[in-house]
Amino acid sequence: MVDAKDKEPCVLCGQPVEITGFSLTTSDGLQKFCCAGCLSIYQLLNEDNTKPTITPLLTTKK
């Protein structure tokens, strides 16, 4: 079992990143977020530092 303290912290709020898919590529590299809200706020505050990326939230197998 993995404790929350062992998980990478959200770049914006510091909460543990428990869900994959909320990430953004910036000039500083890949940034990971705990939720869509933190990702969106980061983009608004740092729009000149972000690079366009598409990160799928869910993947389905057929």
From TrEMBL:
Superkingdom assignment: Bacteria
Residue ranges constituting the Putative metal-binding domain according to the UniProt record: 10-49
Protein name (database record): Cation transport ATPase-like protein
